[in-house]
Design goal:
homodimer; 483 residues; alpha+beta; BirA Bifunctional Protein, domain 2; Rossmann fold; Translation Initiation Factor IF3; 3 domains; eleven-stranded mixed β-sheet; five-stranded mixed β-sheet; 15 helices; 23 strands
């Protein structure tokens, strides 16, 4: 077993040695993706796609509970649509791929592949919305989108990715702002209570907001190398897209009025965030609620008791399965238990169940936590309840570990020098005052490589001076280097 | 109420007057889709997308039960990939849109938007498959695909559509053929027992098979205008794509051997088929298992008993909902019961539940079938069971009606003249002998507009002479005009 362990370990670079290398080693060894022959596009192999399916199922349920319905809009967007919202076109034009020929003929107007669908959906909404009775219009789309990125990173930044984009239209600002905040809260709750990823909830600075939004809000997570991932965004679009696409309705006073719109999304980059927040030198560590396999059962012991042990394992497997637990048995004989222990640790399965002949005699099984390594000997007759409890505990454990890590790598600074000194020693976030000027914000970036992540709603403290110019702080901002 | 009925009816052209008009009227009135500004691309509005979600959920379950897992492959396919399989490129090249510019630069190699993914997946499989231990490889993808169609029809033929494509690789021909047949049977069972669409199962003639397949099998359905829709296909690809993409593995004798592959798919055209098989002059008629709303409850009676009736309706609603029935209540006061009856008939909801003050006194409710119009007075205390029974009966009823219709419009012919005479009077399918020559097959098409749908596995009878040349029949074929 120790020999196996060494073999496994040496294939994954330790995080402390080279975090990027660790990430690429891990996703390769865990068989999550393949590079495709198309620049920046990856293949989501079954083990990562299943994570996405679990994310989809849970978010979809939450969207429907909050009154949204799914629809599907075209992949192609006429180039002229992007010209209609000035900031939007500036933000997205550099990343658009264009279809210029189809069916053997040159197209009259180039068609962009959607990078996001505000324009197409805005166009359709102007057709669909006529009266206040049509509002609010609450629609979500699950789709692929493309942004021709210069630098890519599997899951975190790929040219094509999968996401959901909510697009809603409302009678007035208050209702649209309420929706924007509601969906931000759906994302926070989902990240923390489903993915076990603690997030900082706040508003983007003007320079970091979505191209075409009035206000952008985000949840921001810290990876184990101290870098940030924007894990979800919710945009209050005001009447920007309504004016650009003429989304007008007859209001309760019989007047033609512009609708107020929102949009919000999360993407397959959440898979990357899951890996970087929870993984360790053994490989993946999957939070129980999103884990494709929550429990792996491994029968052990000598050949003579094998049939008996496997038979009992299968019985317990059936019990767990019918209780809705995602479980599998590995009873292969051509791999040693030790090899299997390492394999499923590397794949991040939250609980390993071991059952040997002595456990059979005692009516027990051994549960091992992927996260803490804790071994727990439990009665077979209580197995379902014990597993459910332990899964819950592992979720909480993972959340707390991620939160502690973030708190340890999150400094409050009064000056840029302090921030720079911090980054020389550690990697992480800084909480700092900011005067509100673009110049100070971009100066931080030039010096440290860190961007403003967001203006948190609940900062640990209020900072009163700008870290760059020393003037009175307008806001307290989280800065960090981001993926 | 009769006034309302007339108003509704006059907006949908009767099927007998103009079937295409009926179809377009119905999908517009039922709010299923919008035309988009991009040629041939439609928007799937929530009421049609929900049908697709129900199709997806059920098929996905069946695919997983048969050992398949989902993955996701890139949208873009390098043009050179299409050149590798000669028949494939000839079949698909005329329909490909190409991305030629991205991120402000001209691409070195043009990228096709996938019309189907055999080539991309073949390329990846050649990387993934090394040993017989890697086989069978059983993967499915849910995705959008694009085929730049000259003539389009909402749902049935759109430039972009949604589908699933299964792609599997096997050690030998026998295993690949077994998979091909298994998935064809999954489709047949799904069409008949979930969508209530009777289908003809058989093999495509060589001229109608998938570009690059050795053999193509299909399920074919008859619409209410007598035309055919190919509702699903399963392809045995032999080693065609394995040779083109070098999918080789080390077999059990340690020799490098080509894998045998299959592919199979169904698409959002099933939504069109559902509408055209089951709909009638009132509008949509949704088979219970796929219907987004299975039951609509409408409280009736005068204002003074209204609160009491609505309260009881809500209680019964909660019971149905917790039994897993997709139910909704329409208790709006600004629309009359008669208007609502017509509205939900037009939307195809299988069962309407009416509850009025007299029903309250008697402890009953009235159930009305969308299909037969049958009214059934049932005890409120048995409502869940009564609804479940009636949904099952409606499913069977719809299947039998569709089957009778097909049988009535399905003639056995000995000559092309007989077929032509039949088509002058009616519209439908013909069963006929065929010598096996492309010439006779295309002659049928020239004269009648009908193509060979497939060579059914279980024809009603075996025909012994070719309908065109009169020579000995090689096969008994179903001919029909197709969408």
């Amino acid at each position: 077993m120790s020999k196996d362990k060494q073999q496994v370990s040496k294939e994954i670079t330790p995080q402390s040695e080279d975090f990027s290398r660790w990430y690429l080693d891990t996703i390769k060894k865990a068989d999550l993706m393949s590079y495709s022959p198309v620049r920046g596009c990856i293949v989501f192999k079954p083990d990562s796609y299943e994570i996405w399916e679990n994310i989809q199922r849970e978010l979809d349920r939450r969207f429907k509970e909050t009154g949204h319905r799914n629809a599907y809009f075209p992949l192609f967007i006429p180039e002229s649509f992007f010209q209609k919202e000035k900031e939007h076109v500036e933000g997205f034009n550099p990343e658009l791929p264009f279809v210029t020929e189809a069916g053997g003929e040159k197209l009259e107007e180039r068609l962009a592949i959607r990078p996001t669908s505000e324009t197409m959906i805005g166009h359709m909404y102007s057709e669909w919305i006529n009266s206040y009775r049509d509002l609010p219009l609450l629609i979500n789309q699950w789709a692929n989108v493309v942004r021709w990125e210069k630098r890519t990173m599997p899951f975190l930044r790929t040219s094509e990715f999968l996401w959901q984009e909510g697009h809603t239209a409302h009678e007035d600002e208050a209702d649209a702002r309420r929706e924007t905040m509601q969906m931000l809260e759906v994302y926070r709750d989902f990240a923390e209570n489903f993915l076990a990823i603690p997030v900082i909830v706040g508003q983007k600075t003007p320079s970091e907001k979505f191209a075409g939004a009035v206000d952008t809000f985000s949840i921001e997570a810290m990876m184990k190398d101290g870098r940030a991932v924007q894990a979800g965004t919710s945009h209050y679009l005001g009447t920007n897209f309504a004016v650009a696409f003429d989304i007008k309705y007859l209001d309760r006073e019989n007047k033609h009025t512009y609708a107020y719109t929102t949009s919000w999304g999360v993407s397959t980059r959440l898979i990357g965030a899951l890996i970087m927040v929870h993984g360790d030198d053994k490989g993946l560590a999957m939070p129980p609620k999103v884990a494709p396999t929550q429990v792996v059962m491994i029968p052990i012991g000598p050949a003579k008791t094998r049939d008996m042990v496997v038979a009992r394992t299968d019985e317990l497997f059936a019990e767990l399965k019918s209780a809705g637990i995602r479980v599998k048995v590995d009873d292969r004989i051509d791999q040693s238990p030790g090899w299997k222990f390492n394999e499923y640790e590397m794949r991040g399965v939250p609980i390993r169940v071991e059952l040997g002949p002595r456990d059979m005699d005692n009516g027990v099984v051994v549960l091992v936590s992927r996260i803490s390594g804790e071994k727990r000997i439990v009665q077979q007759e209580n197995l379902v309840a014990e597993i459910q409890t332990m899964l819950e505990e592992i979720h909480n454990d993972m959340f707390e570990r991620a939160k502690s890590f973030r708190d340890e790598n999150f400094i409050s600074v009064d000056s840029l020098e302090e921030f720079t000194a911090f980054l020389e020693e550690k990697r992480g976030f800084a909480l700092a005052g900011w005067c509100g000027s673009d110049a100070c914000e971009s100066h931080v970036k030039e010096v440290t490589g860190a961007t403003s992540r967001n203006i948190p709603f609940e900062p640990a403290e209020k900072k009163d001076k700008c870290l760059v110019c020393g003037e009175t702080a307008k806001d307290t901002v989280v800065f960090g280097r981001a993926y």
